[in-house]
Amino acid sequence: MNRLAQESSLYLRQHQENPVDWYPWGEEAFTVARAEDKPVLLSVGYSTCHWCHVMAHESFSDPEVAELQNRLFVSIKVDREERPGVDRIYMEALLAFTGSGGWPMTVFLLPDGRPYFAGTYFPPQDRGGLPAFRRVLLAAAAAYRDRRPDLEATSRELARALAPSRVGGTGSAPSQEDLAAASERVLAGWDKDHGGLRGAPKFPQAPLLEFLQARWALRGDQDAGRAVGLTLRRMAEGGIHDQLGGGFHRYSVDDRWGVPHFEKMLYDQAQLIPLYLHHWQMQRDEGALGVAVQTAEFIVSGLGLPSGGFAAAVDADSAGREGLTYLWTREQLESAGGEGWREFWRLDPGARVDGDFVLQAALPWGRLPPGAAEVRSRLLAERAERPQPQRDDKVVVAWNAQAASALAELGLLLSDDRFLTPALRCALLLWESARDSEGGLTHLLYGSSSRLPATLEDRAALGLCGLWMHELTGDGVWVERSLDLAESAERLHRDGAGLWHETAAGADPLLPARPTVVDDGATRSGISQMASLCWRLWQLTGEASWSERAEAAASRLGRGATGQPLAFGGLLADLESMNAGGTQLAIAAAPGEHLELLRRARSHFLPTLVVAVGTGSESDPPLAAGRPALGGIPTAHVCRDFTCRMPTTLVDDLEAQLSAARSAGSMGG
Questions:
Q1: Less Cβ crowding at N or C end of the chain, within 10 Å?
Q2: Domains of the chain: which residue ranges?
Q3: Residue 569 in contact with residue 520, Cβ under 8 Å?
Q4: 351 neighbors 259 (Cβ within 8 angstroms)
Q5: DSSP class of residue 454?
Q6: Least confident stretch, 51-65, 170-184, 457-471
Q7: CA–CA dist 66, 60 (Å, integer)
Q8: Each residue of 106-130: pLDDT tens digit?
Q9: Torsion of CA 253, 255, 256, 260, to 10 degrees
Q10: What is 10-163's CATH number?
């Protein structure tokens, strides 16, 4: 029975022709499992996952394996990007069973949803220390049949371990000494030659880079600054960076950023743009700015959708081969690009996939001087004739909000409508379309339809995006929207013990526990983003309750974060800002006339800066309310921890005042 053909998820539809009798996640599958007294096989992946495709081809498409699977189990297929709560709970179980995670995730469940065994990819035959999938199926079914009491005990113990009451701790927020020690722990594992954490595979680790960048900007930590600069440059020059089409692949399989895992994720692009932009602000290195611009161009042209949203990802595979679109032989390069290609790109014998090369940059930061444009155009034209990877066009609210924020910040600094217009259009789409019938937020958009309840990350990311849209437009309605999202997160996601959960209460009653994400993975956790949003709302409104909520997260999680800094980069970046103290800027101006002052204010990287724009009326955001434009001229009011300097209409004076605020922050007060 084909139950996946009508699903919105591309990943689920990719499995609609499997001989496996798949169910989507829902009550029907568990009802059947209980009625037939069968265990559940839960398979979790996503549409651009290479090894998910491999396992689908090797095992889920095999009629004999499917017959065994159908006879012994009720099988459920889940898109992790569609149902992050399901993914999180069972990933915690996988980590408990094996000590490591990944996708495809294969979890065996009792009929009530509790896990009793888990793994990731299983090959069709015993290989590389991994048992064949057929053997795993037989063993898991035999355990359910013959050792039910043992499995029940294991599941009960695991359920207790997943309980949210075990998350976090109590105590005071970390001191500046604690944060300095956390930075030293991170840098102790840093690759001094290529950047990033030592070893392979190598991931961008954007939240961790954000922490080090905040240390550099707020504390003058030169070691942290050098680590960030080296990493960003080596990434830009390596194969993880698409040297022709722009954008970054998910990670590199080697320790030199040379050979990528070729999928491209929206969230990576959205997080890397600000990192490169802030590096340019700190160093004025035009190469870093160029990478930020190229990455933004890829988001707009490569991931942009007619709706105004951005696609979630681009697949790693083309025509069944990973990276086919992006790989080159010398003969192909010389045929399409002539001899000129050698001036701008190079081939590394160590950066090859099945004998073909991944392009590396020949110039620092991957700079492409004007003479490269024609050669690049010819190579891209040749590449366009190849099979192209599939794009997953679902719109994930959190990732789109992060992308809109990144495009707004870049477009604002460059006065570039190529990025400003899509940023605002995307934010408007999320606010106007990602809503349910009761005005609440949803997690996804497929075309113009929305579905599934929003996560904490969705609400927090869109709330932070709203603050950027307020800066960009000067419209106070965006601050009101951010407040609305933060208040709904408090109402729906915080429990009686004061802990934010990733899903709203009762959002998925089928799960054996409520998902709670405290650590940063590929993106900042919802808790980290909520802490940042609450702290900024305090600066904008002066309402102490928002500060208390941010500080509560810092107190509950901060000690664990400084003790295990590799998993908490985003929260540590927030803690740096909280400890440094806030810098508030209110700009009073007629609608649309605030941008010159705003651009000058944002011309240097100051993580603690919070901006409110208004006309001086009492209806403005509280930070801007009652602060007039002097003589009708756009006026800046700079405050440090709510103590304000004399207002100014001069951009040079504004920059001097903000420079003094930066210096005060670097001294810790």
A1: N
A2: 10-163, 583-666
A3: yes
A4: yes
A5: P
A6: 170-184
A7: 6
A8: 999 999 999 999 999 999 998 888 8
A9: 10
A10: 3.40.30.10
pTM of the model: 0.94
Residue 232's φ and ψ, nearest 5 degrees, are -65, -40
How far apart, in whole angstroms, are the C-alpha atoms of residue 354 and residue 371? 31
- pLDDT score of 164: 55
**Cα(607)–Cα(623) distance, integer angstroms:** 18
74-79 and 22-24 strand pairing: parallel
Q: What Cα–Cα distance (Å) separates residue 313 from each residue in 77, 123, 291, 302, 552?
A: 19, 26, 19, 10, 35
Contact 336, 256 (CB under 8 A): no
Q: Which residues pair with 613 in a beta bridge?
A: 587
Residue 439 gets the label, from left (phi > 0), alpha (psi -120 to 50) or beta, of: left
CA 457 to chain centroid? 10
pLDDT 10s digits, 416-452: 999 999 999 999 999 998 876 566 899 999 865 667 8
- The torsion angles phi and psi of 75, rounded to 5 degrees, stand at -105, 130
The rounded distance, in Å, linking the Cα atoms of 599 and 648 is 15
CA distance 328 to 380: 12
Residues in CB range of 173: below 8 A, 6 or more apart: 551, 554, 555, 558, 575, 578
The separation between the first and the last C-alpha atoms of the chain, rounded to the nearest angstrom, is 66
**Distance between CA 135 and CA 126 in Å, rounded?**
9
Which residue in the block uniquely carries the two structure tokens 């954007």?
A: 206
User: Which residue has better confidence, 102 or 305?
Assistant: 305
Same fold, 10-163 and 583-666: yes
Separation of alpha carbons 286 and 280, rounded Å? 7
CATH architecture type of domain 583-666: 3-Layer(aba) Sandwich (3.40)
Which token pair is 133?
A: 């999938």
